[in-house]
Design goal:
Order of helices and strands: EHEHE
Distance between the termini: 33 Å
Shape: globular
Strand content: 15-25%
Number of strands: 3
């Protein structure tokens, strides 16, 4: 895990997280957003994705998550 004082800066980068509404997906999405990345969060349930977006925005202090809803093939 990257320490909070890490010199990593992902500002201007875009990250794609699949399964973003799940346990590890939420952790990864939050961490990437905290490092400055715009995160495309891929979810199956739109409402869970929106809850994630709001939670990350409140935690990080910026709305850096865009929710992409997909259906199971």
């Amino acid at each position: 895990m990257i320490p909070p004082s890490s010199p990593v800066d992902l500002t201007g980068k875009v990250s794609l997280v699949t399964g973003a509404a799940g346990g590890m997906g939420q952790v990864i999405t939050t961490r990437l957003a905290r490092l400055g990345s715009t995160v495309l969060a891929v979810v199956r349930d739109r409402e869970r994705g929106e809850q994630l977006r709001r939670r990350v925005a409140a935690d990080v202090g910026a709305d850096r998550v865009e929710v992409l809803t997909v259906s199971r093939c």
